[in-house]
Structure formats: C-alpha cells, structure tokens
Amino acid sequence: MNPHAHAIDRLHGLQIDTILAGANLAAMRPRFAALANRHENGTAPRAVSAFQLFQTPPAIAARLVALLALKPGARVLEPSAGLGRILDALAPLQCGEVIAVETAPSCAGELFRKDRPGVTIKQQDFLTCTPDELGTFDAVAMNPPFHIRADIQHILHGLTFLKSGGTLAALCLNTDHRRKALQPLAATWEELPCGTFAKEGTHVPTVLLTIKAPATA
Residues 192, 208: contact at Cβ < 8 Å? Predict the structure, then answer.
C-alpha cells in the first residue's frame, strides 16, 4: 500500500474511535439528565449505560443469527451480550443452551432481570473466559466492542470457542486494520450502510461477517 494512503486510512480509523467515544458520551447524557430531574417529574428511571454500548439493531441481530444456520439443540455463545438484542433474536430458534457473557455491571443487571429460558448469564470480561471454563460451542454470535480495535481481539478470541465445523457471526468496524486481520478468515463479508447504527447513536461503517471453524474428520 502507498504510505500516504496507509497514513490516511490510519487517521480514518482513529477518527472512527473518536466518534465512537463521543457518541457513547452523548448517549449517556440524557440518561443522567433524567436521573437528575427525577425529583421534578416524580419518576425514578433506571439508567443503563456502559462504555461502547451500541446495541445491535433488531433487524441486523436477526440477520446475524440467521447466518449461523442453527440446528435445534445447538449450543451458542453470545460473548458481548449488552442488553440482549442478539439473545432476543436467538430466542425462537430452539437452541439447546445459550451462554451470554457481559462485562458491564449495569448491562448484566438488566440481563439478569429478564427471564430467558435456556440462557445462562455470566458477568465477566469475555477476554478472561476460556474454553476450559465455558466449553465449546456450535456457534458464536457477537457484536463486540469496537474501541481501539477491541473487535478484532474479541472475534479472534471467540474463534477459540468454536467446535469443529462451527460458525461465528459478528459485527466489526469497516477499516483497513479490520480488513487485514479478519477478512482473510471470513467465509462471508458484508459491508453494511453507514446509517445502520444511526438509531443506536453512531454512523460508523460496519461489516457483518462469518468465520467457519474447519471440520475435522
């Protein structure tokens, strides 16, 4: 790659990280304002915020889950569960067991409040989880944090949990670093419109990808 073009792409990636941080702060502001004004409006809203919480749009969560082509009884891992959008998309699919991991206490608290049959919630940093602890899975469905290329790290870690022949479906940022690290591994790579996450507070370019674990004899 031309050094000038590489520098421009790197600056673009840094700009996206800055946009994400700003969007997260903007999303948090009205929640805290509502709490500050609860003595005036007579309500006590429950504010739920976490750094890098950009929920998966329901339509994208449904498409992501459909790419897994799950069979009844499949064991599924959701490593960055947030407030449960992907879990909601998994609900009708007759999974055998779903393990959902979420590091943010506020988000994990919301997940624990909702009854989801067959779903086990673990409040833990996914990057500290191991296959020895959680086991292996037929599928991994994830919308990982994007900040400072965390999506690359989370997706590569997610691959270590796949059974032979299993499928990982994930969202990531669409930047040069992600393309270099993840696209060579991908079975499918779909660039999503920049407005896909607009209702969630950001316009960053994203990709919906799948990676398949090799099947062993």
Answer: yes
Angle at 100 between CA 96 and CA 102, to 5 degrees: 180
Structure tokens at 82: 């947030």
Q: Does the reported pTM lie above 0.85?
A: no
| Residue spans per domain, the chain | 58-212
Determine the Cα–Cα distance for residues 179 and 186; give it in Å rounded to an integer: 10
Give per-residue burial for 177-213: e unless 16+ CB within 10 Å, then b: ebbebbeeebeebeebeeebbeebbbebbbbbbbbeb
What are the φ/ψ torsions at residue 72 (nearest 5 degrees)? -55, 135
CATH of domain 58-212: 3.40.50.150
Q: Sheet of 119-123: strands edge to edge?
A: 119-123, 97-102, 75-78, 137-142, 162-173, 206-212, 188-192
**Token duo for residue 135:** 């086991």
List, for residues 12-42, the tens digit of each pLDDT value: 555 555 545 444 444 444 443 443 444 444 4
Instruction: Please state the φ and ψ torsions of residue 44, each to the nearest 5 degrees.
Output: -130, 75
